[in-house]
Specification:
Elements (H helix, E strand, L loop, with lengths): L11 H10 L2 H11 L2 H6 E9 L12 E10 L2 E10 L8 H19 L8 E8 L22 H5 L8 E4 L12 H15 L2 H7 L1 H9 L4 H19 L5 H6 L4 H107 L7 H6 L2 H20 L1
Parallel strand pairs: 3-4, 4-5
Antiparallel strand pairs: 1-2, 2-3
Length: 394
C-alpha cells in the first residue's frame, strides 16, 4: 500500500458517504443499478437492512469507509459489503483487504448464529472516488503470483472471488443510475474530486431545487452543502462562508439560484427551529408533569408504607407493654394468692398444733404441715377441734 499522509478519521468524505448511503432507499437503488440483473430480480429489496459494525483497519480509516447491508435472497440472507475508497491512488492490495474484511464479517456472524448454521454469501462492492482510474483487477486470483501454464491446477486450490467496482473517475454522469438522491450524490462526489462543482451546480440546479422543496429529501440538500463547505475548507486550509464559496461561481444565475435555495432553507430552518423548540418545551413540560405524577404516587406509596410500618411498630410496642402489664398483673395476683394461702396455712397450722398440745398429742412439725394440702389441713383441724369439744363436755 502507498504511504499517504494521515488524515482525520472523521473526514468529510466519510461523513458524506455514510449519511447518504445510510438512507435505505438510496442504497437500494444504487445496488439495483450496479449488481447483476438476475440477482437484482431474485432479491427481496423490501427486506434490505443496514447492519452494525465497521471492518476497515483503523490505520486505513482516514481514506476508507464501509457499510454492511443484508437482504433476503430466495429465503436465505445475502450480505452486501460496501467499501468506499476516497484515497488519491489505487490500492494494489484491495483483493486481499476485501478477503480480510469478509472473514471479519463471517467471524461476527458466527458469534450470533446457531450451531451448524451455514454462513451467508457476501458480495463486496467497491465505490472508488480516487483521483486516478481504477487499475487493479477485480478478481482475487489475479492478485496472487500463479504460473500461467499451471493456473487451472494451482488456482483451484486458492480462494477466488470477484468484487463489484463502481469507479466514479471513469463513469460518465449519464450512466449513474438509481433514484434522484443517488444520482445527485454520486455525481457530486465525482465533481468534488475533479474540481468541477460549478458546472455540476449548473447541470443539477433543478434537481437541487427539487431536493430543497421535498420534505423527506431536504436534509440531503443540506448534507450536500455541508460536504462541499467541508471539502473546500480542507483544501483552503480554513473555513469559507457560504457567500465566499458561492462568490467563486462565475455563472450569476446559478449563484443566485443556490443562494435562493439556501436562504429558503435557512428560513424554513428558523421556523422548524421555533416549532421544535415549542414541541421540546411541551415535551419537557409533559415529562415533568408525568414525573410529578409518578413521584406523587411514589411519595404516597412511601408515606403509606411509612404509616403502616409506624402502626406496626406501635402495635409491637403496645403489644409488648400489654404483655408486660399482663405479666405484672398475673404476678401480683399470684403473689396475693400466695400471701392469702400462706396466711391460711399459718392459721390452720397454728390451730392444729394448739389442739394437739391441749389433747396431749404429739405436735406436728411445721415442715409436715407445709407439705400437706390446705384441704387436708382444714379436715385435720376440724377433727382435732371436735375431739377437743368432746373432752370438754365430759
Amino acid at each position: 500500500m502507498s504511504d499517504e499522509p494521515a488524515q482525520p478519521i472523521h473526514n468529510p468524505h466519510d461523513r458524506f458517504f455514510k449519511q447518504i448511503f445510510s438512507r435505505l432507499e438510496t442504497t437500494r437503488e444504487f445496488l439495483r443499478a450496479h449488481l447483476p440483473r438476475r440477482l437484482v430480480r431474485a432479491a427481496k429489496w423490501h427486506t434490505l437492512k443496514l447492519r452494525p459494525g465497521s471492518f476497515v483497519d483503523e490505520r486505513l480509516a482516514a481514506y476508507s469507509s464501509d457499510l454492511l447491508f443484508s437482504v433476503e435472497l430466495r429465503g436465505s440472507p445475502l450480505l452486501l459489503y460496501c467499501l468506499f475508497e476516497h484515497r488519491s491512488t489505487v490500492d494494489p492490495n484491495m483483493p486481499f483487504r476485501l478477503l480480510v474484511y469478509m472473514v471479519r464479517i463471517w467471524e461476527q456472524w458466527f458469534k450470533e448464529a446457531d450451531p451448524g448454521q451455514k454462513p451467508p454469501c457476501i458480495i463486496p462492492i467497491v465505490l472508488h472516488q480516487g483521483g486516478e482510474a481504477w487499475s487493479v483487477s477485480t478478481h482475487f486470483l489475479d492478485w496472487l503470483e500463479v504460473p500461467e501454464e499451471l493456473k487451472d491446477e494451482v488456482g483451484r486450490f486458492q480462494p477466488d472471488f470477484e468484487h463489484v467496482l463502481v469507479d466514479l473517475s471513469r463513469m460518465p454522469v449519464e450512466e449513474m443510475g438509481g433514484e434522484l438522491v443517488g444520482r445527485v450524490a454520486l455525481s457530486f462526489m465525482k465533481a468534488v474530486r475533479e474540481g468541477g462543482v460549478e458546472p455540476w451546480l449548473e447541470r443539477f440546479e433543478s434537481a437541487l431545487g427539487e431536493l430543497a422543496r421535498t420534505p423527506d429529501k431536504v436534509e440531503v440538500f443540506r448534507t450536500l452543502m455541508r460536504y462541499w463547505f467541508a471539502v473546500d475548507a480542507a483544501e483552503a486550509k480554513g473555513p469559507s462562508t457560504a457567500e465566499q464559496l458561492l462568490s467563486r461561481i462565475e455563472n450569476q444565475r446559478v449563484r443566485e439560484r443556490v443562494m435562493s435555495i439556501a436562504e429558503e432553507l435557512l428560513e424554513r430552518g428558523r421556523k422548524e427551529g421555533r416549532q421544535e423548540a415549542e414541541r421540546r418545551a411541551r415535551s419537557i413540560a409533559e415529562e415533568l408533569l408525568e414525573r410529578g405524577r409518578k413521584e406523587g404516587r411514589q411519595e404516597a406509596e412511601r408515606r403509606a408504607r411509612s404509616i403502616a410500618e409506624e402502626s406496626l411498630e406501635r402495635g409491637r410496642n403496645e403489644g409488648r407493654q400489654e404483655a408486660e402489664r399482663r405479666a405484672r398483673s398475673i404476678a401480683e395476683e399470684s403473689l396475693e394468692r400466695g400471701r392469702k394461702e400462706g396466711e391460711q396455712r399459718g392459721r390452720l397450722g397454728g390451730g392444729i398444733q394448739l389442739c394437739e398440745q391441749v389433747l396431749g398429742l404429739p405436735v406436728s412439725s411445721v415442715e409436715d404441715l407445709q407439705a400437706r394440702e390446705v384441704a387436708d389441713l382444714e379436715r385435720l383441724l376440724e377433727e382435732l377441734e371436735g375431739n377437743l369439744r368432746q373432752r370438754m363436755a365430759r
